[in-house]
Amino acid sequence: xxxxxxxxxxxxxxxxxxxxxxxxxxxxxxxxxxxxxxxxxxxxxxxxxxxxxxxxxxxxxxxxxxxxxxxxxxxxxxxxxxxxxxxxxxxxxxxxxxxxxxxxxxxxxxxxxxxx
Length: 116
Hints:
Layout: H1 7-10, H2 22-52, H3 60-78
């Protein structure tokens, strides 16, 4: 049995700052990789079509994309979103100030001659 309360357990945290689950992060990285590799396939097909059509030096432009994109796709797919160094931030409610009625003669509820 613990003699002191666990202060860390008693605090509420903002859920919106939580990192995505590992499965969601991997899924997002896979989608980015597949998108970039799809662009590479398009570059390769355009290169072949331009080469067959005797486009000359313009064939080099999509060929460079088809050659360079795998490197960038792997680098982008292996990068993780950096975690925050402060971990979670405790929830601090942003409440308005408490209403304090103005002090005056009519505030006490006394009836005057005009009210009767």
